[in-house]
User: Fold these one by one.
Assistant:
Number 1:
Amino acid sequence: MRDERLEKLADVLVHYAVAVKAGDKVAISAEDCAIPFIKAVARAAQKQGGLVEYYVDIPDVDAEIVKNGTKQQYARANKRFGDCAASDVWISAWGSENTKTMQSIPAERLKERRLANAENRKLYSDRMGSGALRWCGTQFPTNGDAQNAGMSLEEYEDFVYQAGYLYEADPVKKWKEMEAEQEKWVKYLNQKKELHILSENTDITVRIEGRKWINCCGKENFPDGEIFTSPIEDGVDGYITFSYPSIINGHEFEQVKLTVSKGRIVEATCRDAEKEKDLLSYIDTDAGSRYFGEVAIGTNYGIQRHTKNILFDEKIGGSMHMAIGEGFQEAGGKNTSAIHWDMINDMKKCGKIYADGELFYENGKFRNEILS
């Protein structure tokens, strides 16, 4: 029996998020546990005249290749990423039966895998930045992700679909309302030169002059809810401590603190000193991974709990995040890297963000009065 919420998600993705047209080459990708998602999206895309190709990831096979493979074998295994990036449209779903599959793999092996995917990631970044690729990633609820979030599968399904307004009679209307509200702040920030971000153990300045802020309202991530840009590469100074766990490839690092000078990370620590070697393996992925590719503010106040899933966690209303590595061409970002790793900071207790000296964001809320 088909899940009507999943069918509704597929329709919103195909008709609103990426607007599939007849003749579009449509790539659909997900792990093997998310085949119902692939089927639902394929049905919706085919009805629109899309030319569907689908890609099924098998995490245990990927893990075997990374554990015992060569660089040439990594590159071959990453080919599907490049194939998807070369399509007109790419709709993907995260969702795993086991979110820890890669956790026991040595950090250096994972670094080699990232570097082997660098060419494919550049293709993705270039085509997304130019608008040639219309892309959206979403979540398929699984037992693995539910367990990781500390929920039952039923609770997690409700969480996922509610975060996307899929219980609304007209979800697209809700996303358009969010788009209009966020656009006010995008226009405001597009006129500014520098941010000054203050919170617990955080005092950092970020130059943004000439960079474009992007309004995220369900067109590239679903659910969505953030505004972001790419900082000027040598224009970040100070220190920032991320209050939520920073998670990548099943590895968790708590209380990551980055000290930055002229854009470059010069020191990186976390709560567990024994994990700092692994933390540095990510930060030292390549020449661009010690610089920032993103600064953003989370705006989805329907998401109020951390679930160890970056799709939702970076959108938490009342949070901000920064990402090391790859920048966004559509925002004017120039930093290149094989990594893009988002790290999130709770701003609800004592957070303040100034733009060119003006306090526009305080304790997790925009100060709407300054726009009037």
Note: The longest helix spans residues 171-189.
Number 2:
Amino acid sequence: MQWFETVVDYLKNFSTYRGTIDAYDILEILIIAVLVYYILVWMKTTRAWQLLKGLIVICVFLLLAYFMEMTTIMWLAKNLLSFAVIAIVVVMQPELRHALEELGKKNFLPSGIFSDSSRREHELFSEKTISEIVKACSEMGKAKTGALIVIEQKESLKDFERTGIEVDGIVTSQLLINIFEHNTPLHDGAVIIRGNRVTSATCYLPLSDNLDLSKELGTRHRAGVGVSEARDCITVIVSEETGKISVAYEGGLERNLSAEELKERLQRLLNRQGEEKSRSKHIWKGRSKAKNEKENIS
């Protein structure tokens, strides 16, 4: 393995390289150190941490084999390396995808570049929609009717919508209660809400593999937490066993909420959307004003 021999050679002759290090090399080392640090921090929260410890053991073993001149083992390692890289990518596919999604959430670029300009104002959450959701969840909780309601925010949920049945109806408590009523065609699965409309029902959601979740939670709660881990949505869950209301957001779960507490959580979401809307309008007005002033000067 050429790279392995290069590393060993560098370690043996490290003293001869010290005189050739300049400011750019130091900057490069700092950048790599920061990248390695953040990669390790990310790996600590995923299954990749166990994989990393296994790779460290293998690397230590190969290092010993190299110094002991175990040529057969080194030949096998050299020929299996390309397959090992592909195997690691396949095994770590969910974690790598999640890491890239998290990177995409960072605001490195202006929000207008990749934003969905076709999103209209009437698609924003309204106070009436909040009241209808709270009323429906309260009534279903009293009747111990299980429910799973996913509310879209910035990130699209269209890939989950495709797993269900299109509804496209205005959010009302009667509609939500009828959807989740026992022995009805649409009661099994999740309902997805975009703005003030129910877009789809009977949608399938990814289950969370968070080991810290209580063992008494069923599939409905794990699906609610799972979709909140994958997207920035807020999920409302009504337990079929206890009638208690829970809210999942960013992988966290708040349980046993009252109707008032549920309304407060949803209003917080509405206020945040309103602030972002007004901020974007303010930025656009500022740009338009600057453009007009420039035209007047010219």
Note: Confidence is low (pLDDT under 50) at residues 111-122, 280-285, 287-298.
